Amino acid sequence: MEEPAIEEGDHNRDVEVAPALISVHPDHKFIVVSIGSDLRVFDLQGSCSVTLVDDSSGPPHKDSIRAIRFGAGGKLFVSAGDDKLVKIWNANSWHCITTVCSEKRVSAVAISKDGMFVCFADKFGVVWALDLDGFDENQVLVDKKAAPVLAHYCSIITSLNTNGGQRITNIRNSHWMGGSLLVLIGTLKFVTVFPKKPLDGAHEIQTFCLGHTEFVSCLALVCTPDCPEGFLVSGSGDSTVRLWDITSGLLLDTCEVGSQAGLLESNGREEEHYSTVTNLCTTSDGTVVAVAIQGLQGIMLLNCNLSARSLSVAKVVSITGGCFIPTSLDTASSAEFLWMVTGVSTLHGLDSHSLARVRVVSGFRRSNDHEPTVLQDEEIPGGEKLLEKLQGSVSIENKVFSAAAEAVKMAMCKLLIKKHYSADKRDFRKRTRNDKKIKQ
Description:
By secondary structure, the protein is mostly beta strands. About 10% of the residues lie in helices and about 40% in strands. About 45% of the residues are buried.
């Protein structure tokens, strides 16, 4: 029997492009950009590029990195992706202290606030926890193995986040818990109790946050002195950003960002075509939310009034001088800069490899009487040295990023939207699958 033809773009996963990601050190010491399998680090304090050293005896990243994150204290950094490797770095020396092999491709990572656990999730809906007990800045962690915390959700987990340990009084009896783990799966978003010793016991679902009508793509957690349990902000393929009470799961407010940005279009049928919210970033006090939207050349800023439990559009910050549609946003708790990146890992048909473009908005944390400003390249902290390291080149032709913008759009769709196959194709894929478990 003749094998079914493999659909275009599916015969070789290596041709998939991966959106560029950016992560900022909590104290604004380092800026990290990942693109493809490349991890690029720049030291803002020393105004120099950083060379990574892998002491873990594990292999380097060989496939697209899909998730990067600093720990809350800035001592740890995690990178993970399609090569099923989770690499944990000492964010002072930039030595890799341990490498863990996942059974499936990794789609999200999180670090507990105390830095004692690293969590990572895969495209089959399993969340794993890695105990970092014994971590020393000058010592490599050996024989570390992850244990499953949540499993059998059978769908891609798009985002993970953790808050700090706290005393919760409205869940059963008052008792200490290690905090909460926030998980996004498809259109479902839930908060699960993250115990003080997650490797010793099963999880406890705290709340379900139901309301999005399309896949949930990103989230941000806001904690305030008045509400240490925190509020949750989420973005989705339904072109909305929503505010939630993390303890009860109550939907507090919805902001239609796609229509506000003028990106909600009809596809010629009765239903409307929505522009996906691809990334979120909040100020430390939660009063401002920066939103990246598919197709928007710039960012949208939302006012988040936690007292009134409301979200509203403040302004759209347009970015001129080329086709710049951010794929990732981040900021530091100690600075007023919003860092943005756009780019793709591999762009076929052009003599350009692992493209990235970095832009910065200043005044991200200022009051409403100060306009946020998009900095010119020469005004960016780190200047040309930073751009040379993180972008790969100080200047990149605009036509390259015009093509990259469409590639990024397709990459985000492939990552977040479930594919549908015929019965013959599903059978063929099962027989030719290459996801055997890797022994740790």
